[in-house]
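Deliverable D5.2: sample structural annotation.
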Amino acid sequence: MTTDHAVLALTVPDWVRGLIFDCDGTLADSLPLHYAAWEETFAALDLPCSLELLLRHNGKPTDLIVALYNAEFGRTINVAEFTADKERRTYARLEQTKPLEPAAGLARRYYGRLPLAVVSGSNRANVERTLRAIGLRELFPVVLTADDGLPPKPAPELFLEAARQLRIEPGYCQVFEDADSGLEAACRAGMLATDVRPFLT
């Protein structure tokens, strides 16, 4: 996996022509809000919430994670009903979201200098609400989510579609991600994959 670790701050090589950002955990400090919604939704069913499973599948759509939970723990949760309940609880919290400055600050600096996109495994309503809450929505002409009908990360299709809409060759795009599945997807798309997690500590 190709990664870019700057010493003090996220950097963009001179050859890069487009920047693509994950949303939750990269631009926005929204993951604790998502995890709280997961815990509440499981609690409503008197079921334990496996934080380890959520962390392992970070970046994947809610319905896929619920299906994986069923498979791993031998449950028969109604995926559609659970997903709707969890997303409702998440949406209600997202106004509290704050930006994560390593990536958010980089996006502000490059706005108007390079084309910018967001690629998220969350649904469109949550992503749009999150980007508005952190004051960054207007920076991104291209926003792709789990609602766009493309295979989820670690498949590369969402990133390739973002590059197509930005009109940038994938090899000239840099991706900023906090999840292993997103970093793998960026690498599979032939893009420079940058792990933001070292810059969040």
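Annotation notes: The chain has two domains: 18-29+98-199, 31-95. The chain is about 45% helix and 10% strand.
The annotation will be released with the project's public dataset once the embargo ends.
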